[in-house]
Amino acid sequence: MKNYTITVNGNVYDVTVEEKGAGAAPAAAAAPVAAPKAAPAPAAAPKAAAGGIEVKAGAAGKVFKIEANVGQSVQAGDTVVIIEAMKMEIPVVAPEAGTVASIDVAVGDAIESGAVLATLN
């Protein structure tokens, strides 16, 4: 058996998976093992080299468009970058007001969930 922790839409699940190999006896049907547990509290944004506030990707995908420029003032909720994931355009917004200190990606870059896309001062 292997244990995994999976996060789906911000909900964290502990999942146990039974491996079946050649010669293993089939397991009896069981109820789902996934049990939700409380999502961890968001940590304070760590200080980045170019700016103190990190703008991170919420999903893996490809950078579709960059909406903000270095030096531009943004408000909390303003779109900084747009990611294309699963044929959808997903805006990545500024977590708080500030000035764009750096844009750390380019259009077409493949990015992972949680990647730092930009920083703000």
UniProtKB/TrEMBL annotation:
Residues 52-121 form the Lipoyl-binding domain. InterPro entries: Biotin_BS, Biotin_Carboxyl_Carrier/Decarb, Biotin_lipoyl. Keywords: Biotin. This is Acetyl-CoA carboxylase biotin carboxyl carrier protein subunit.
